[in-house]
Amino acid sequence: MRPYQEELVETAVRGKNTIACAPTGSGKTEVAIYVAMSHLNQRETDKQPARVAMLVPRTPLVEQQKLRFHTYVRGKYYVEGFHGSGLKGSSRRDIVLACDIVVMTPQILLNMLKSIRQDERLYVCDFSLLIFDEVHHCTKDHPYNILMQMIHDYQGPKPQTMGLTASLGVAQVPNEESGMAAIFDLMANMGATALASVKRHVDILAQWVPKPDDGEWLFLMVFNKEGATCCRNGRRRRIGRAERVVREANNVRLGALQVSAFTGSYARHPPRLR
């Protein structure tokens, strides 16, 4: 784990529902794997049942993420993956219940949670941790959001949730207020009480993220009492003009947000980096 990845897992490994925001190429999958394994290890120590599901929005990601888990798990935990063309019915249910970690598309999980056939059905309490890749999709009628609504309404034990994203869904908002509203909506949809971002190791993060090839940058603003630090952290399609869409939030019940993202043209509006 790189130092900035250790920052991203701090709240999740303490059992808090967390959204982790970091740029593409920074190793968010490794963050998810670390949280999943820490969760399973702790539940085993506490003699509590555990099962982790990692949800991915596209079918090709199922096999990709399953293989990444296999690389780190090394046989300690049973990992399987499912998508729309996988096994059906009770065979799939039995395999899921035999797994320690399962990677699947959200629609598969929704279908199994809603199934009227007892031999096909899963329950929310069958999982102790759900990890949502590209969690910025958790809005409106996306399967992520429908799934979270089911979890909010569920009366039994609820799983811990963790979301991973590079954007927080604020890239296209018109102003700062809309950006903050989008973040709070996402956190509410996910039931998240923590927004994890890189604050102490921004310089190390900048060494690992992909470098742009067209002069368009996504910047990460990290706020603290002493001021703000700006770090180039990834490529964006041409935006047209520099626009900060999120600022430091004060006096909010979800906790002090210390990360702000804005898009801009590096060629025409170079920010001061420090």
From TrEMBL:
Question: Gene Ontology cellular component?
Answer: cytoplasm
Q: Supply one GO molecular-function term.
A: ATP binding
- Domain Helicase ATP-binding positions: 9-186
Return the PROSITE patterns for the record: HELICASE_ATP_BIND_1 (PS51192)
- Protein's name in the database: Helicase ATP-binding domain-containing protein
